[in-house]
Amino acid sequence: MSYLSSKDIRQKFLEFFEKSGHKVVPSSSLIPTDPSVLLTTAGMQQFKPYFVGTADPMQDFGSKNTASIQKCFRTSDIDEVGDETHLTFFEMLGNFSFGGYFKEEAIKYAHEFITQELGLKIDYVSVFEGDSEVPKDVESEKIWRSLGVNEIKYAGRADNFWGPTGAEGPCGPTTEIYVNGVEIWNIVFNEYYMHADLPAGASAKEGKSLEPLKQKGVDTGMGLERLAMVTQNKPTIFETDLFSPLLEKIPDLEIKKQRVVADHARGIIFLLGDGVRPSNKEAGYILRRLMRRVFVYENLHKFRPDFLEELIKVVIENYSHFYPELKENRNEIINEMWMEHERFAKTVSHGLKELEKQTAINAKVAFHLYESFGLPYEVIKEMGAKRAEKLNREEFDEEFKKHQEISRAGMEKKFGGHGLILNTGELKAGSEEELNKVLRLHTATHLLQRALREVLGPEVKQAGSDITAERTRFDFNFSRKLTPEEIKKVEDLVNEKIKEDLPVNFKEMPKEEAEKTGALFFFKEKYPDKVKVYYIGKSLDSAWSKEFCGGPHVNHTGVIGKFKIAKEESIGANTRRIRATVN
Questions:
Q1: What is this structure's pTM?
Q2: Do residue 101 and residue 209 come from a single domain?
Q3: CB-CB contact of 579 with 567 (8 Å)
Q4: Rounded to the nearest 5°, which phi and psi values hold at 571?
Q5: What would the pLDDT profile of 398-454 be if each residue is shown by its tens digit?
Q6: I need a surface site. Which of 85, 387, 472, 485 has the fewest CB within 10 A?
């Protein structure tokens, strides 16, 4: 077969499935709308509501079958990065069906794409061998044999059954495709729903119950990096065109460190491009870990001053044709990188003096250095050298976890033992003070959506939201960047409605009746037969804003305070994000 660039592979994949009756859906953000996960880890994540039947694919896509190329990030592999296969950021090619087709069509599509579109030879495939709960997948075996693939291996839960680790969701047996000895495509047949009370893969003897799904589905995933490796006939993913331009810019280091810098640079830039900011919690903590590990190497090996901007330039040049939000957010990515770089420089100067005083560095000492001086694990491990040779990530993370538990206990004591007093998934508050702020932000978010539609038109549709005591984050579908004038109009309109001190009420009614009121609702959500419609105005009929919503809200808009849009940015194709505050 002829050489295929990563760009060619993306195009061939999407064109093949579009011709096969699939709706091509853009990648969702690395910041998921699903509150059960920290970052987007798989292509199926944005489609979870369709697998479980809480959203209608025909209504949203005009098809029961979709295909996407999803940007993904997995934190479990951070410490393995540097070998020949592990990555943090990667792209996942996938085709999905929500009751449209099942095993036969899914296997035939995969076989045709690999052997005919890419011209590759399948070495062998694997199928689920069965156990006491789930039968052996003899159907997949027969389908593969009918296509002339006779090298078939059987494996158990660990290898050929996919389930969401540590969480709940659709799951089922898998069949996997191997080319040149590399597993390149995993096809999951979602037949069951796994509940969150027990770990993935637990057997019936351990009390694990798998509930059959009412609607069977197909969820496939094929890593672009591995696919590029086999189509470009390279020995590792780091020699493909996805990494070679980056590695050329990295000074001569030992090969593992070069790969770490290349991987982390991609991950950092994509996280920043999707609006993640370095911090000491959640996704921001992951980003900070990556950034500071790169800064450690830069500091130790005296990289040239323009090194960081060179990495950003290369990643944006190589990826912005498919992910235009990178080019659009270029200046912010550069600014955030340099701001964190400055914070790190201050950390190093103070923390290293204390590190040098230590004769032996275990997890407790390392966490003290982190907590007191902000010195990250990677810096301590690298610069502690022999004194830190017994230090490992697991023990450090255990110390970090203990600290979080102590902090959480203190928070519960401070707020009368209530802990998190509000957590609807979208809204989170840990105290009465935070609750007050969250309610103001929640009502302001309803005003924001209405103002956006008034200024920009009905193209604006909600794509997700998340509200904390610090800010509201509102995602919406729109095809271009907002102008400064449009942002000001939206902001002014929200503040005008706050100043009018409009009443906020709700009415509970049947869903069909609620739809007739013209109330807005999140198109990906499947609502119960009876819903609440929150409206802002004197009556439901004359209300300025009305939405399906579970609440809670403030009683009148005057208490919200001054509304300010802090940021407007792209987080994907035709998807924008606004961050806003009230004070």
A1: 0.71
A2: yes
A3: yes
A4: -125, 10
A5: 887 777 666 545 444 433 333 545 666 667 777 777 888 999 999 999 999 999 999
A6: 485
